[in-house]
Amino acid sequence: MAPKTGLWFIGARGSVATTATVGALALTAGLTRRTGCVTDLAEIAVARPPGVADLLIGGHDVVGDSLPKRAEALADGGVFGIELARAVHDGLTQVDARIRHGVTADDGQRDAIEQVSRDLAGFRAAHALDQVIVVDVATTEPPVEITPELSDLDALERALAAGESPLPLSSLYAYAAFRAGCPVVAFTPSPGPRLPALTQLAERVGLPWAGSDGKTGETLVKSALAPMFATRALRVRSWASYNMLGGGDGRALADPVTATSKTQSKGKGLTEMLGEPVDGPLHIDYVEDLGEWKTAWDMVSFEGFLGTRMSMQFTWQGCDSALAAPLVLDLARLVARAQQVGESGPLGALGFFFKDPAGDGGHDLGGQWRALVEWCQQIGGDR
Ligand SMILES: NC(=O)c1ccc[n+]([C@@H]2O[C@H](COP(=O)([O-])OP(=O)(O)OC[C@H]3O[C@@H](n4cnc5c(N)ncnc54)[C@H](O)[C@@H]3O)[C@@H](O)[C@H]2O)c1
Predict the structure, then answer these.
(1) C-beta of 218 in contact with ligand 1 (< 6 A)
(2) Ligand 1 in reach of 60 Cβ (< 6 A)
(3) How far is the CA of 134 from the centre of ligand 1 (A)?
(4) Are 5-213+322-381 and 218-320 in the same CATH fold?
């Protein structure tokens, strides 16, 4: 059967999108295992999301390197085997033909919104898709100041109509996606759909969205460990985190202003999970040589009964794109299901997947898992 759900990547030729595309093609052809695919666990599969084979991939990017070339480079870097990249070469070429040139900060925003909406509508029509889920995996942007135009939808519409360009690019894409009837997944820490004017738009057009910033490594471990200290009544005195990474993401985060988006979203949960403010310095360094690999070193200093001082350290060495890619597919499938059953607004139940979850729900991984399972049971029972 032909795929019925579109998955549209913003940043379609980046490491995460390319790995997710290789993964989707490999899963569909039965060439790899479902390791890392949360949606295929029995507790989540009850939601009855579309299968990976039901997804048709397209997207926007601003670089010209073809998807097969990007896949070869990732295979060279050890993210997956070169045989796998070769086995899905034809599929990658087909996806590549569906990648449109993205918009940039130099484009006028009214025209750029129209172009993105037109590309999305064209993709849906050309392949007779029932729905298209837009997933932002583009380069991280710095945080923005919330101006009156970004706080209120009507003010934003007036500014756009007057030919102004008030939106950061991630939010421009989210705006165009909502206007084209597409739910959005914000996998990056960029502003995207989180600006108040954008959340109002999602409510107004009745679309679901999920975000933000995929929780794939150090923050994932933190959100599993912090509740342990809290529920054992151990007092965490400080939690210092040091990250080193390469790749395109590492290069973008080498800019200290852009890195603020990441350090803010990574730092959000600790106080909430520990029940009190804790000194938690967090540092990110770009080490080109590490390529797609990331090393995080955390040092937790804590206090037990009678004030006894102790510490714990962990080192996480992850391949970021291999950790992120299955989550991207999970999110596209679950958000597609949410749209099918008529959900709208921020999907708090998907907080399990994010460093800075939008909507209701906390940061504690166990609590997030229970909320996700309950939501999946609920939406699995609808229509
Ligand atoms: N890998 C992980 O574990 C992980 C976890 C959480 C969040 N993220 C986020 O995912 C994003 C992607 O990470 P990556 O490693 O794939 O980075 P990457 O640099 O490899 O890919 C980013 C892609 O975005 C494209 N892009 C830039 N500007 C664009 C525009 N205006 N329109 C369309 N495309 C544009 C770039 O050309 C590039 O191909 C980053 O923001 C990162 O912070 C990654």
Answers:
(1) no
(2) yes
(3) 14
(4) no
- Concatenating the DSSP letter of every residue in 48-71 gives -PPPGGGEEEEEEES----HHHHH
Residue 4's Cβ-count burial label (10 Å; 0-12, 13-18, 19+) is middle
Model-wide pTM > 0.85: yes
Distance between Cα 222 and ligand 1 center (Å):
23
pLDDT, tens digit (0-9, with 9 covering 90-100), for 54-84: 999 999 999 989 999 999 999 999 999 999 9
Give the mutation target among 15, 172, 249, 328 for probing the ligand 1 site: most ligand atoms within 8 A of CB: 249
5-213+322-381 belongs to which CATH class?
alpha beta
Does the C-beta of 291 come closer than 6 Å to ligand 1? no
Report domain extents, the chain: 5-213+322-381, 218-320
- Please name the CATH architecture into which domain 218-320 falls: 2-Layer Sandwich (3.30)
